[in-house]
């Protein structure tokens, strides 16, 4: 009794292997397309979320006054200056200004660095300072921005108060 396969059985086995390979290939292509689509949707969502935040600026026009300006069409629910960066020495001077109230669309809020803080920082009036700000957009999302850099959304961990 010989156990040889006839050609039709080989043909059947070959067809099954081809179908299995094709199925794996289709599944792989579908996974790649789904991943790319998900990344694209995430990028669009981040773009929508940061639309207002990109239109909020802070400048130091007349030292030591910092001006936060809302160029967007929606109000800011609050803002504050949290630091002054000195590009020449690459030093960040931490400050905590009082929080502004609501800054309506197209309006600005001026903050003057207090005199006692000025004397502690010993910053020369000729130095260019880049302000760092924290603000809440109309959706209630908190953002941080330093100078002209893109705004960065604050996470829930960053907003949680420190435990002592």
Describe the structure.
The protein is built from 3 helices and 8 strands. It has about 160 residues and is an alpha+beta fold. It folds into 2 domains: about 1-50; about 55-160, Immunoglobulin-like. The longest helix has about 45 residues, at about 5-50. About 15% of the residues are buried.
User: What is the count of structural domains?
Assistant: 2
CATH fold type of the largest domain: Immunoglobulin-like
Largest β-sheet summary:
5 strands, antiparallel
The whole-angstrom Rg is 29 Å
- As a percent range, the share of helical residues equals 25-40%
What's the SSE pattern?
HEEEEEHEEEH
Classification by helices and strands: alpha+beta
From the N-terminal CA to the C-terminal CA, the straight-line distance is 85 Å
Number of strands: 8
Shape assignment: elongated
The number of helical runs is 3
Detail the poorly predicted runs.
none
Mean pLDDT: 82
Strand order of the largest sheet: 4-3-6-7-8
Proportion of beta-strand residues: 25-35%
CATH class assignment of the largest domain: Mainly Beta
Secondary-structure arrangement, i.e. CATH architecture of the largest domain: Sandwich
């Amino acid at each position: 009794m010989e156990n040889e396969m006839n050609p039709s059985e080989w043909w059947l086995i070959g067809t099954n292997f081809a179908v299995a390979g094709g199925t794996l290939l289709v599944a792989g292509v579908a996974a790649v397309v789904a991943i790319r689509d998900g990344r694209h949707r995430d990028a669009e969502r981040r773009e929508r979320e940061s639309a207002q935040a990109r239109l909020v600026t802070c400048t130091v026009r007349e030292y030591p006054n910092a001006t936060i300006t809302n160029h967007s069409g929606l109000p800011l629910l609050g803002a504050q200056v949290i630091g002054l960066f000195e590009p020449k020495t690459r030093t960040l001077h931490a400050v905590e200004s009082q929080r502004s109230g609501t800054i309506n669309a197209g309006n600005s809020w001026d903050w003057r660095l207090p005199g006692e803080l000025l004397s502690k920082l010993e910053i020369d009036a000729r130095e260019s300072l880049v302000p760092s700000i924290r603000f809440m957009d109309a959706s209630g999302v908190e953002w941080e921005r330093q100078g002209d850099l893109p705004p960065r959304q604050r996470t829930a961990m960053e907003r949680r108060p420190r435990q002592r």
